[in-house]
Structures are given as structure tokens and as C-alpha cells.
Design a protein that fits this description.
single chain; 132 residues; mainly alpha
Amino acid sequence: MNRGRIIIAFLVAPLVTPVVLELFARLEGSSTFPFITGVVAYLATIVFGVPAFFIYRALKWTNVFLFVLGGAIIGFVVTLFVFESYTVEYFLQFLQVRVWCVLAGALSALMFRLILFRLSFNGAHVPANGET
């Protein structure tokens, strides 16, 4: 893991979030503001993703499932700030959007991990295009 890969991962992975949320909006027949969701994704990366990266690195966690789980948790926590939930009724009103945000966070973390460690899953080389 070199510094260049880390920087590229932090720059590219948050872009997954606006793509996923725009896809969700299109399926619902509406549209989002990709610039706004992108800004929120980068802020979430700074506030939650950078500390998570250092924690994962300190604990030597490289498992892809831990990255996906961490991204999903970060995506959920961000929804608690974006869609304030004073009551359970209000929380449930935005449940579908929250699920998509969790998915976006998980996919963003997966992209981060793939950039950081290439296609190596816990040290095992994953062959590409019929490579043996």
C-alpha cells in the first residue's frame, strides 16, 4: 500500500456515492443533485473515512467484508445527520433512502479497498481474464 494508491482511493471512492444515489433517484422517477451528494460524500470521507482508514491500518484489517461493513455503517451514520430523525415515524419515512445510502457507503468502501489493494483478497491473488 503506497501513498499514491491511498490518495487515489480517497479521491475516487467517494464518487461512487453520487452515482448510486442518482441511480436510485432515476429508478424512483426523479433526480438528485450529484454535486451536492458528491460534496456530502467527500465530507463523510473526511469526517468518517479517514479515521476509519487509520483504524483499519492500525488493526491490519484488509478483509473485503470488513471494508464493506465499515462503509455501510458510515453510510448509515451519515443519514442520521442528513435526515434528522426525531421520531421513529420520521425515521421510517426515509427508510428506503437510508437503505440506498447504506448501499452507496458499502460500494464506496469496496471501491476504496479495490483501489488500495488491487484485486488481492486477503493476500490471495485473484486471476483476471483467464490468468492462472
